[in-house]
């Protein structure tokens, strides 16, 4: 083969390979979806530490900056006997694809003054920046889930 013919054919072969490889790549971002939040222990008592883990029914894809906002809502009793409803929100930032696409989890210690025999609400609001677009064309996504825990 003559050198003048070889170089254009080589260039064409490389270009064809590059275009074929791109056709196999799906650049659509998928926002995770949660189906439940597991709590351990499942019946914490005032003063106990607990771990909340949100289970992803749908794993995310092509997601970068992620913010998890966990909110714990429960009642505490003050020294004067009054009872107050408290909301505590803890925030965690991560890079979903770059650092951790595991089920999000957080630890929390209930105050000793939490009122036993009541319900505690645990909620997760996750916001995602997509690396591509979702199937509906969005560049951002959100997933939420909550659960109720009974305190001993």
From N to C, what is the helix and strand string? HEEEEEEE
Question: Count the helices. How many?
Answer: 1
Poorly predicted residue ranges: 14-24
- Give me the count of strands: 7
**Spatial gap, N to C terminus:** 83 Å
* Inertia-based shape: elongated
Q: Let me know the average pLDDT.
A: 89
Largest sheet: 4 strands, antiparallel
Spatial strand sequence of the major β-sheet: 4-3-6-7
Helical content stands at 10-25%
Over all CA atoms, what is the radius of gyration? 24 Å
Q: What is the structural class?
A: mainly beta
Structure, explained:
The chain has one helix and seven strands. It has 152 residues and is mainly beta. The strands form two sheets. It has a four-stranded antiparallel β-sheet, with no helix packed on it. Strands 1-2-5 form a three-stranded antiparallel β-sheet, with no helix packed on it. The chain is elongated and about 95 Å long. Residues 14-24 have low confidence and may be disordered.
Short description:
The protein is mainly beta and about 150 residues long. The chain is built from one helix and seven strands; from the N terminus they run αβββββββ. Helices cover about 15% and strands about 50% of the residues.
